[in-house]
Amino acid sequence: MTTSAPPAAETSAPVTTKAKKRPGDVAFSGTALGAGIVILAVLAAVTFFLIAQSIPALTADPEGTQFLNGTPFLQYVWPFVFGTIWASFMALLVAAPLSIGVALFISHYAPRRLASVIGYVVDLLAAIPSVVYGLWGALVFSRILQPFYVELNERGGWIFVFSGQPSPTGRTILTASLVLAVMILPIMTAICREVFLQTPKLHEEAALALGATRWEMIRMAVFPFGRGGMVSAAMLALGRALGETMAVTMVLSATGVVSFQVLTSSNPTPIPANIALNFGEAYGTGTNVLIATGLILFIVTFAVNAIARWIVNRRAEFSGAN
Fold it and tell me: Domain ABC transmembrane type-1, which positions (predicted)?
């Protein structure tokens, strides 16, 4: 008696069904893609413009070129690069601890009503035009700081940065840096505040449950989580300081010197201030020279952002930047 084998089980290929796209999803994704393409296109156009307009200045004879006056371009632009970095560094040095402290006070110390008021006031500072900051720095803030500069020179003149004859007007590179610090304070404070508020509550409660004080909890839970966000905020604020024009222009005059002294009348001049002060008188190849200095500023800003992104990516494992 023979028995027939049972029929083989029929195998069917898995059926994949595509999710139906709603018109709103298609419109949103298309808009987001278009916005990203527009940003890249604008960045590429700016880069092409700067390079194309800088070539005549880089290839021209320095002897007959306005602003160069026989000086090679790199030698001409170096003092302005130094002034840009020096002023922005001092501004960030002042603004960073203040911003982190204000952000911590708003997020972890102040009562809710007071925190909302302080947060609103800080955000309001970002809406003030830079020309207003420049007028305030040149006409009011510099006069307030001038007696302090004289006292600082008398007591701390043995330190190189505070040596030299103090400016009688108070309009120095240090005044310009302090004005820049006030300008970048709201940007960095707002970003740090949002990052600190995103710290997981379980991390904070665990630290407090182990007997940590509020400051120890912030040091062990909030700062490690917000490290990447703080670096990003600092670099965004630094980018604002690097490209600021009007405020620095109204406080300083273009001298083009390389000096670490911050109280004297001979001050390093940032690239944006030099362009703003001289562009009205530029003609011919002189215009290309100023545009070429703008290309240098573009490269410096891009390098700063690239370094910041590298730092954030290295610290991204336990960070609010994710």
Answer: 81-308
Structure token pair of residue 86? 């020096």
Q: Enumerate residues 6+ apart whose C-beta is below 8 A from 279.
A: 287, 290
**How far, in Å, CA of 311 to CA of 231, rounded?**
8
pTM of the model: 0.81
What is the tens place of the pLDDT at every residue in 135-188? 898 889 989 999 999 998 888 888 888 888 888 888 888 999 999 999 999 989
The domain segmentation of the chain, as residue ranges, is 35-314
Query: Is the separation of the CB atoms in 201 and 195 below 8 Å?
Result: no
Overall fold of domain 35-314: MetI-like fold (1.10.3720)
In angstroms, the CA 76 to CA 288 distance is 13
- Residue that has been written with the tokens 């407090």 in this structure: 208
Return the half-sphere exposure (C-beta side, CA atoms, 13 A cut-off) of residue 288: 16
**Assigned token pair, 237:** 């604020």
Q: At residue 150, what are phi and psi to the nearest 5 degrees?
A: -60, -45
